[in-house]
Every structure is written in structure tokens, then in C-alpha cells.
What does this fold into?
Amino acid sequence: MTYDFFKYQGTGNDFVLIDDRNGAFPASDQALIERLCHRRFGVGADGLILLQNYPGPGEEASEESDYDFRMVYFNADGAEGSMCGNGGRCIVRFAHDLGLFETETRFLAVDGEHVAVVSEENISLKMGAVSVIEDRDGLTFLNTGSPHVVRFVDDLESLDVVAEGRSIRYNSLFQPGGTNVNFAQVLDDNTVFVRTYERGVEDETYSCGTGVTAVALVAHQQLTMADPVSIKTIGGNLRVSFTSQAGGGFDTIYLIGPAKRVFAGTISL
Ligand SMILES: N[C@H](CCC[C@H](N)C(=O)O)C(=O)O
It folds into this structure.
């Protein structure tokens, strides 16, 4: 079998994208997906994303669920992950490149509906609402589609993100699922530098979309940083805009930044 694939990256968070509208890709083959994401034995990526038809076989679309496509996201370890913000921006660029919509799209992901707008450079992706920011034994924890710890530090450049991140990722407070871990340093009144340890990749990535979204909301709540928050990651710059609710939650959250096609190829099995 052969499968055409495309490689996309969003601020250095990189993904194998496959047009699976015919449903032929063996999505339950975890070892295969892990191998394709491997940087020595495969294409190399932080995750693999399928673009599927909505409704799928046996599903019925209602008027409210008139989606352009469905996003199915796998982490580099081959397991289906929770929501991926940079992957979401990449699949929107992919769907746009495939001609599935012109400027605005609605699609379905594991955490529900997303809308997104494409401009020349940037993809603005609407994220799910966040109802609560928790304190778990002094660690700030929230779910922005994926689970995230946010910790502010003074010297992010020299921090051992993998060692520190891994110890929090496996902390019993977050089991059985574990958590992604973001370390953040305030650079100025509305800019934060973020480095993320990603579960499922089990390493630091160059950028994490749901992670920087989490950091922006915590920066607003704990440090009164104003909307929109500018984020610097190793892989580039992002912006997060949001509305804060009286009860402490957030909605109309947008993750904004570039997403690009890098190359195309063919996987032969
Ligand atoms: N890189 C992704 C996060 C993937 C989340 C994944 N690591 C998990 O928790 O399953 C992003 O841009 O939001």
C-alpha cells in the first residue's frame, strides 16, 4: 500500500498530514504511526493527523453539525491524543490547500467544534472554552483541549525542561492520563516566553498550541496580563486572544499564528 502524505509545521510543532477522506489509512495501527513519526526510522514528526470526511460512514450530519472535515490527531507515540492547537492550525492550512473552503471553516476535533479563519500568513483557530483554572498542590492546572500545567520561572533559557517537565508529567497528581507541562517567563507587559514538555512526544517540542493558550489564560488570571497575550516559543511567535468571564472562566479563545506546508511525499508499506 502507498499513502500520500504532507508535512506541515506550526511554529516548529511538526506533523504528518494525511488526506484520509477515503478512510483507507490504518488508524488503529499504533506501531505504524509511531514509526512514521520517528525521526530516524520514519518521516519524523511530533504527531500525525488525519483529515477525514464529516459525517463519516454511518454518521448523520444535522444542521448544527455542518462541518467541512474531521481532525483525528495522534501523538508521536502512536496513541490518539487530546486536542492539538498547532496541529489544528496545520490541518486548517491543509484543508485550505486542498480547496475545502475559502477563508473560514468549521471542523470537528476530539474536543468538539472549532472554527478557524485563514489569512495570508496566519491561521486564527478558535479553541474550546475553559471553565476553571485549578491549583493542585501548588501547581496550576487547566484543560485547554489538552491537560496543561503552567509554571512561571525566572531563567527559562537555562532550565532543564525535559527533566523538570517529566517529573511533573508523571506526578501522581495527574495520573492516570498525565499532563503536558509549560514553563513560562514574562518578557514584558504582554509577552511571555514559553517552553513545553509534551506528553505523548515525551520530550520538549518547539511549540505547543494548547500549551501557550493555557499560559496566556494563567498570565491573565495570575499576573493581570491583558488580552491579547503575545507568546514567544523556540519555533516562533503566537498570539492568544480571549474573553474572561466573571466566574473565572474564559471563552472566545483564539490561537493565532503561522502554519506552513513543508513538503509532500509517499509512504510505502
Ligand atoms: N502539540 C499540541 C498538544 C498536543 C497535546 C498532546 N501532547 C496530548 O496531551 O495529548 C498542541 O499544539 O496543542
Notes: The pocket of 2,6-diaminopimelic acid is lined by residues 13, 75, 81-82, 84-87, 146, 180, 198-200, 205, 208-211 (CB under 6 Å). The domain at 2-123+259-268 is CATH 3.10.310.10 (Diaminopimelate Epimerase; Chain A, domain 1). The chain has two domains: 2-123+259-268, 134-257.
